[in-house]
Amino acid sequence: MNKEDYNSKARKRYANEENYREKRIIRARVRRKNNRIKNIVSEFRHGMSHTGTWNSWNAMKRRTRGGCSAHAKYKNMFIDPRWNRFFNFFSDMGARPEGLTLDRKDNEKGYYKDNCRWATRAEQSRNRRCNVLNEEMVRMIREEKKGMAGVIIAKELGLKADTVRRAMSGLTWKEVSHV
Question: What is the pTM of this model?
Answer without folding.
Answer: 0.56
